[in-house]
């Protein structure tokens, strides 16, 4: 049986705070990220936001996508729908609050993309037999 959705969501919320704060740290570099779960097109969409990603940031985003897989398994097990608009709004608004005011719109756009990627991953898992 998969972990409960509330437990997974606590881990996601903690990662979101780390992701946003990592964008404003000192260890920024311009490395190209690698990901098993995020497509090259999705990475390009994220990079367009002009945020400064560190290796740590990409690692955290990849961890978050791994949690998306757990969310999918939990939703598949319980029969819940993939998209929960209330939860989506909560996640985005909380992430925005972690960011400096001048960067809040970019964080909002980043989390819209993160949500889209998460939904794609969840749909892929849920539709697998």
User: What is the strand tally?
Assistant: 0
Helical stretch tally = 5
Whole-number mean pLDDT: 88
Q: How many discrete domains?
A: 1
- Work out the strand percent: under 5%
The low-confidence runs, each spanning 5 or more residues with pLDDT under 50, are: none
Rg of Cα set: 14 Å
Which H/E pattern describes the elements? HHHHH
How can the largest sheet be summarized? none
Q: Give the helix/strand class.
A: mainly alpha
Give the overall shape, derived from the CA principal axes. globular
| Helix proportion range | 55-70%
CA-to-CA gap between the ends? 16 Å
Structure description:
With 129 residues, the chain is an all-alpha fold. The protein has one domain. The chain has helices at residues 5-22, 40-47, 55-78, 85-98, 104-127. The longest helix has 24 residues, at 55-78. It is globular and about 40 Å long. The mean pLDDT is 88.
Question: What does this entry show, briefly?
Answer:
Helix content is 68%, strand content 0%.
Question: Which descriptors apply to this entry?
Answer:
129 residues, 68% helix, 0% strand
